[in-house]
Amino acid sequence: MGDIAASVMHNLHARRAAGGEGNAWALVRLTGRLLRPDRMTLRPGSPQLQTPRSPSACAPRKGCPVTSASMGVGQQDRNGGLSLRGVAQRLVGTGEAPPPTAGEQALRFVAEFEEHGTGWFWQTDRNGRLSYLSDKVARQLVRDGAPAVGVALTELLQVDADAPNGERSLAFHLSSRTTFSEYSVHSVAAAGKVDRWWSMSGRPSFDARGNFTGFIGTGSDLTAARQSEAEIKRLALSDSLTGLANRQRMRLALDSALAQGTAARATSLLLLDLDRFKQVNDTLGHQTGDALLKQVAQRLLRAVGEGGLVGRLGGDEFQVIVPGEGRRDTLAEAAREIIAALSHPYFIDGSSISIGCSIGIAVAPDDGIDSETLVRNADLALYAAKADGRGVHRFFREEMLLGAQGRRQLEDDLRQALAKGELHLAYQPVVSTRDEKIKGFEALVRWTHPVRGAVSPAEFVPVAEECGLIESIGEWVLRTACMEAASWPGEVRVAVNVSPIQFANPALPALVTSALAKAGLPPARLELEITESVFLHETASSERMFRNLKGIGVRLALDDFGTGYSSLGYLKTAPFDKIKIDQSFVRGAAIAGNRNAAIIKAIVTLADTLGMETTAEGVEIQDEIALVRELGCSHIQGYVYGRPMPADAAAALLGQGGGQAEASGFKTSRSPRSTMLRWASILIGGRRAQVRIRNLSATGAMIDGFDAAAGRDVDVQIELLEDQLVPAKIRWAKDGKAGLQFVEQFDMERLNAAKPSRILRKTG
């Protein structure tokens, strides 16, 4: 527009030289200063439209078609200004006028641009009051019916404080008479009126003598762009599925809350994870899962209310920020309410769905003063809540961080252990109950740390599953076990544990085939042990995996039966060759009154009906061998026949006596005992004596200060509780000590109610 303005000025200067002054020249003098887009409004009395000094200059004459009347000068528009559109049209469009000059044509373009384009013009007097404003903007700034022209510019517009150049206001530039460019401004809106946004530029104006006359400038409408920008920002900070705040907005909100917080003003962070959500996705589909997440979001909003900001981080993980709240009792109650709200059944497409929720809580500033630390600690608390059985909340504690750091160090060491050869296999015998011959070994991975020494599998296997190392470790175990078992006698099998993560990998059958082929081990000699947890997400892929493994010819064993998945339906289709009874059912089964023997019998009956073998795990006492054999188990595994041993020791054991196993260890089972020192009265053949109880269990006691002459298998009565005699029989007596077996089991809990005066000292 600058070139067009110059052209208009050049041509109209030529008209002036030819004698054309009057109102046409007044217009030229204005447009020469303002010449930019669109429709313009002049305030009545503006100096640019004052009558020229020479009245004759305004008289109509030939060759000067523009007159005061024809230009419409003095005609006010509806906003109190003067319209120049008619001026431009008459100047270049009358039938009497000659063809328009370049300047006249440019003036028409300017008027059209101001009328229909996005730009506009403005001008102030030396006091900062608007003397000119494009009509379309003037209409937007009318307040209470009063026109915008004549009002101070700073009363109508203000700079966006968030803009890059927002630190300097319009008032600053107007007072300092400095140029500004593309300032983002918005209207100082009246109540209930929507703000408009513009980009605005301006420069100071001076007359021929250098006197400041005001500001002159241009602008363009930014409202649509700002609204679009706001919507893009909203979408960028919102979760597209639930409409909740997304991870980025939650991070910004947490940073802001922590920046405003003090030692006296806490900020709390709740991290939520849905329990059993993956099962919903796997069984009912992702569409149902998405619908469930939407309902969860609505319940969360209702449960939290106005007190906090709720967001979804992704998947089934949510977050709640509670500014200004650090009281643990209040937060605990809120967490319980959230868990209860999310645990009620959901009804989606005719299905009733039940899930749960676990929550970890961290409170600033005690648990962290920055967002990264607070989120990490809330995540550790959530990890603890899930480890404690899910459906609960846990607050962060410092020991959680120490435990996490220990797990991280363990993970780093474990990554190197495989490469450095720190892992090795130990083999525990599996013995037939029929002839006590070794039928196989279970391969158990062991880790000898160069600094920590032996690390328990219960400690490092879960870490391997969490950090993704379990598949590489599992492959090493499988290949090593097959190679070492290949040198054993032909009928001896080797059992290898397969984690649920390995079982879910479609490449497992190919890996098994490769390990067998490389070792030269017949498939029938390899037994894969699979836990019940693989059935938690039973799908068509699980059935396909079973078929593929059985197609190879390997045996399948169901490990730790009775401790995991509660349904027995999978036994109808899963092609297991063996059920391994968990040691929790075996331990104590030989003790009178224990119900474990009945459970073992039920499992054996089920396995026999399905044509499966059974192995009783964790057998440690010799009298348990006879019981397990009597109950019908086909195999025994446990310390009673040997602890896990290296491969060469296993090979040597097979070479001794044709692989015959030999039981060792305690011969009889006994109840757990409490060591103590207390006096008690004992009644023997009508004679009362004082003895000391050394240890006590539900089935008997060891005493000292006893007269061995009384002999064995003698009936006695001992006062375990004040004035209450318990019948017993002497089973052994030696060196002033004796072992008593109670006629009936004694309830150990009754000792807790005993009078303290009767107990001298409890030592364990």
Automatic annotation (TrEMBL):
PAC domain location: 179-234
Disordered: region residues: 38-79
Gene3D superfamilies: 3.30.70.270, EAL domain, PAS domain
CDD domains, sorted: EAL, GGDEF
Annotated ranges, domain EAL: 407-658
Membrane spanning residue stretches: none
MF terms in GO: cyclic-di-GMP binding
A Pfam family assignment: PAS_4
GGDEF domain location: 265-398
Entries under PANTHER family matching the protein: BIOFILM ARCHITECTURE MAINTENANCE PROTEIN MBAA, DIGUANYLATE CYCLASE DGCP
Name the record gives this protein: EAL domain-containing protein
